[in-house]
Amino acid sequence: MGHHCCSKQKVKRGLWSPEEDEKLVRYISEHGHSCWSSVPKHAGLQRCGKSCRLRWINYLRPDLKRGTFSEQEERTIIDVHRILGNRWAQIAKHLPGRTDNEVKNFWNSCIKKKLIAQGLDPKTHNLLPASKTLLHGGGGGGAANPSGNGLAQFQSNNGAAAAGTTPFTISSPAKAAAYDVAPPAIPPALYDVVLPANPAGGMLMAHDHHQAAAAAAPVGYPYADHGGNGGGVLMSFRDQNAGVHGAASMDFMNGSSSSSSMEQLGGGGGMSSNGNGGFSASMAAFMDEEAAMWATAVEPPGMGGLAGMDQVAQQQQQVLVQDAAVGVAPTTLMMHGGGAATAGAMVVDKSVEMVDVSSAVYGGATATAFDLDLMVESCGMFCGGGGGAGAGNAMEQLQWDC
DNA sequence: AACAGGGGCAACCGCTTGCCG
DNA sequence: TCGGCAAGCGGTTGCCCCTGT
């Protein structure tokens, strides 16, 4: 069955011959493609216009960059995909010379498998459920956990953490060592795990610049610290040196924060947490899918406590939280390098199960061009959005310059 | 050397969106 | 406002090539 647009005529399908390519290139070069449906006719091709268009866009365009993807392109794809999802055309716009089809194929054939191999869900970029389970050393299990969230499960296994099967085992870039083996030689005590006061609390925190060197990521690891800033640990509980890094040091379980960064996020509303895992409206807004993504300060019904957080966890999306030390206005969302000068950004995963510092450790002093672009975009959309309930569609805003 | 299986990539399919009469 | 058409886009398929047995 051919395309509906060309079902009336006999058209050739399948791979393009060099002669066909030549005809199409010659025609487009001379006449352009004002109307694709008329291109095959005028170019002397027995193809439908749609096929011609695809061939031109995906293969014959002179500005296409062929060949394998660079490491930076790969990181860019992962970064943008984390935010946009499978919007290949939008992702491709961040990669000059690459087509959406190419990006899509590269994702499906390569990146996707890498992420899965690393225990990350390629859709959400968070730990796969199976991997989360492994955090608990296989002991206990969710069945014994009434709240059903990852942290509570982890809490029930604090002893195991001390024994070596810490959550850092899986989140460490060194997790290539499979999940059934002992973690890298990182002294558990160095992680300053903040034990929640309330077993029902549900947040797994991350970001430990303190032990960056010990958890150095292997080359090629997507979440490696490309900025030479150390890091590489995807999960921990508290930045031990927030005063130096300027990173948020939060103890959600105890409802305190040793840094003001998160409190600034809410634009006055601030962020608070109590022993029951409740969040203020401003933080709840960050936790919501689109609104949370790009700032709608509305607390959905039933979002008040852990139950609400669990709901949000169904729609895993990540919010990048601006570091207080950078001094950007409240409700400004940024992805930045996290270099020594700017300190590490805290990246809060709205799944509320862990904090993803991947973007923070990406950049360092050598933040990618994408980081900068997205930074501008993100700032723009936030500043423009005003943080009110009427803030527009986040995705649309993200694409405003595409 | 022959074959099977898997991976990568080009192309297709069908739905959505935008434009225009 | 509505319908038709073309383009855009994401998901899927199928072919080709490489690698392992």
TrEMBL record:
Keywords: DNA-binding, Nucleus, Repeat, Transcription, Transcription regulation. The keyword DNA-binding applies. Residues 8-60, 61-111 form the Myb-like domain. GO terms for cellular component: nucleus. Residues 8-60, 61-115 form the HTH myb-type domain. Its main location: nucleus. Pfam families: Myb_DNA-binding. The keyword Kinase does not apply. GO terms for molecular function: DNA binding. It is found in: Nucleus. This is Uncharacterized protein. It comes from Oryza meridionalis. The lineage of its organism: Eukaryota, Viridiplantae, Streptophyta, Embryophyta, Tracheophyta.
